[in-house]
Amino acid sequence: MANDRPLAAHEILDALENVSDNEEDYRERLICILPPPVDPDCLTDEDSGEEDNVTLNNLPRNILLQSAEVMIQGQIMVSDTEEEPSDSTGRTKRRRTYAWKKRDLAKNPVNWPDVQGACQDKRPIEWFENFLDEDFISLLVSESSKYAVKKNLPGDITTEDMKCFIGILLVSGYLWLPRRRMYWENSPDTKNELISSAMTRDRFDFIFRHLHVNDNLDLQDKYTKVRPLVTLLNKTFLEFSPLEEHYSVDEAMIPYYGRHGCKQHIKGKPIRYGFKAWVGATRLGYVLWMEPYQGATTMCNPIYKELGLGASVVLTFCDVLISRGFDLPYHVVFDNFFTRTPLLEEITKKGLRCTGTVRENRTSSCPLITSKLLKKKERGAVDYRTTHDNTFIIAKWHDNNIFSIASNAVGINPKQSAKRFSQSEKRNIVIEEPHMVSIYNKYMGGVDRSDENISHYRIGIRGKKWYMPLLTHMIDLAEHNA
Known about the structure:
It is a single chain. It contains 14 helices and 15 strands. By secondary structure, the chain is of the alpha+beta class. Strands 4, 5, 6, 7, 8, 9, 10, 11, 12 and 13 form a ten-stranded mixed β-sheet that branches. The chain has a three-stranded antiparallel β-sheet with strand order 1-2-3, with no helix packed on it. The protein has a two-stranded antiparallel sheet with strand order 14-15. β14 and β15 form a beta hairpin. The longest helix is centred in the N-terminal third of the chain and has 17 residues. It is elongated and about 85 Å long.
């Protein structure tokens, strides 16, 4: 019902008493009465009822008339006029509530069309030359030469010099030495004939000291020094990317141990210190898109800002997929950092599909069984709810721990068989795995696979400039994709 004011405590009590009993409605009601204002007309704080008869109405008059909130299953139900604070744009945000039903997600199966993507019959070196094309090389040559001229040094870096320079960097990825000058030493155990015969040491040092991409043109962009290369490679990676149905979005770390405002520390990662980047990749690790993380100024589409950082990253990647022009129902997979119910709705509006793990406090009060009770059930037990309009499903699954997941594309059935080790029985057992969990486990590891491949042959020559790890990482990405 619509009101011009919040409901008072006695009005909420009357409404709850008039609700018809429902056998399946086992939900608990909690009433939160807001602190009452000082009433100058009330000179006493005695109870309004008898002391021996303690009831809900046995409260002072100023409390009964005070605004209150009722909470059902952790969801606050207030009067229709209650609104959340306005955002920075002046628009008033409302918290979306959902009606839930215990049923599986009913979606029509998607037949992925036989659409031919980029031709895949080239050799890896040919792919590498496509990624580091003439635009890439000419940008490095021109900007590095200009940078050398600013220091009153000859700007005579040529295209062949830059290609040879990049080749030496790639060799350092699998023939690592503690210092780069050791490649040119006369010691038989360190000298590399391929490198020393291709370029002199002083020439390499000259190019390395003056390697440059961009000036500080955009003070709002903390990665303006490398922004042209990021934009250029994202365009090239997308142009030659394989056309697949499933993609994953995750974070990747670029190792860096110096000082910079964007440097991150993530505990438990293989690379704990460095720059963080948002990455979109295929199942086998081909990187289509990357965006370095820089806090609130991360270069994501500003129209998604009110949905939060995680949702902005995923929706920006979805726009990248849509920009390919094939009008296909891509399936994007991501982890619980990104997943929120508004994100699921936005992806559905775009005609795409998604699956992702979700944190329990981001389920929009979905009435699932508590994790404590689900742990007491047998391994493989699952509880799920679907929105009333069949938009998406949220489920909890008992594996080694409680696994919460949401999807707008796949549901619980058909269930798969999963092998697990039982600590109590000391043997492998077979449990039922929901279909949405199988999809997540199969397609989520693309970004991690690319990180692993790059780590085996990461460029070993390091410089003192803060953006040097980013430049070498882009070359590593091109090598990996090729």
